[in-house]
Design goal:
This protein is of the alpha+beta class. It contains four helices and three strands, in the order αβααββα. Helix 1 crosses helix 4.
């Protein structure tokens, strides 16, 4: 897909934490949530989603438990921990700072060349 947007490194964890802010979800539901919330601009592949969830679980930001889905299939559901909620606040603050900094660069006038 030519219009595919690559996520900046570190952004995936923030998006996963945000998706889990409202309720526990399994990996596929998290990826669908990110896709729909981004109006189909961002798509998280399975090869990125599950390693990220495992890293986040090791860091203590999420916990998991096996449950049955609405389709009556067994799946691992992830939920935020208190540490994950704190991490989301920190990641969101850093994200806003980075967006503002990039905006200043992109909106700045070109530097005058010395003659």
């Amino acid at each position: 897909m030519p219009d595919r947007i690559e996520l900046l490194q570190g952004t995936l964890a923030m998006l996963i934490l945000r998706a889990l802010q409202w309720e526990p979800q399994h990996g596929y539901a998290i990826s669908q949530s990110i896709k729909s919330q981004s109006e189909d601009v961002l798509q998280v592949e399975t090869g990125s989603m599950y390693p990220a969830l495992h890293r986040m679980e090791k860091q203590g930001w999420v916990r998991s438990e096996w449950k049955m889905t609405d389709a009556n299939q067994r799946a691992k559901f992830y939920s935020l921990t208190p540490a994950g909620r704190k991490q989301l606040v920190q990641e969101h603050a850093r994200w806003k700072q980075m967006v503002a900094a990039i905006g200043r660069i992109m909106d700045s006038a070109p530097a005058k060349a010395d003659a």
